[in-house]
Here is the input.
Amino acid sequence: MSDQKPTLASRESNAESLLHKVEAEAARNPFDGVDFADLELSLYRPRTAFSIILSWTVGVMTLIALVPLFAVLCMLIWRGGKKLSLALFTQLPPAPLQQGGGFGNAIVGTLIMVGIAALITVPLGIFTGVYLAQAPGSSRLASAVRFSAKVLTGFPSILAGVFAYGAIVLATGGYSAIAGGIALSILMLPTIILTAESAIAMVPARMKEASIGMGATTTQTVWMVLLPTAMPGILTGVMLAVARAAGETAPLLFTALFSNYWLLSHGRVDLMRPTASLAVLIYNFAGMPFQNQVELAWAAALVLVVMVLVTNLIGQSFSRQQVNQ
Here is the structure.
């Protein structure tokens, strides 16, 4: 016992001395011994000069890459802005050699067909994304669905139109807004699936574990925790898919064709008839030899670009909300 007491005392003294050393190190200026003059920016150093050259090169290349975008926007504003008026949104496309007119039916037709596609793809895409995010890594079905969705992201849009033509147009006996919406849904679906899966997978695992720990079932966890938390990311994917579908032309040439009239028939909306769209109107009018139709095509292109731009901005705002969360 007499040998143990000095040992304990020595240990306590060593611990106290070590604590004093740590406190002294913490109180000391962390920048002691640092030569700030040696850290100053110097163009004589090859590494610093090379970094500056690359930074300027990247900046110049970025500006060059933006030139085509701003050139197209300036051309649209200059050529299409001169034709903008309230009549464009309320009147029907004019006949050849006729002046004036508008493309109100094309705007309505575009919104209706994109809306039909969204009604089909949003529930299906979100539920599929939930399944992919929740499925175990060894699930062959989940791997096959994920691979198929990635393949569909590069699917040519004209093939979607050909498929809808054979499956819907030939079966129903005519072009229609329904066929156009189904063709657009094929293009929207993979984007919604993959973005929904990514958004749900980004939800912190502790939130799911806390929900299950409180006695919630898997269904309750998905509906009350995962989906509300991942909703900004899911809406981002939906907005991006809508923006892509709104600018498609080839699928609508095979499914909805075009029309110079409103979709109203006997006081109700008739979706089983040829339907106008902004993309097809631009395609038809841009190649006509009539000045009025060409000007309408420029104005329609400007309106379509603004619609797509606004949709993308909404999607970006939802994306920033998810990052802030």
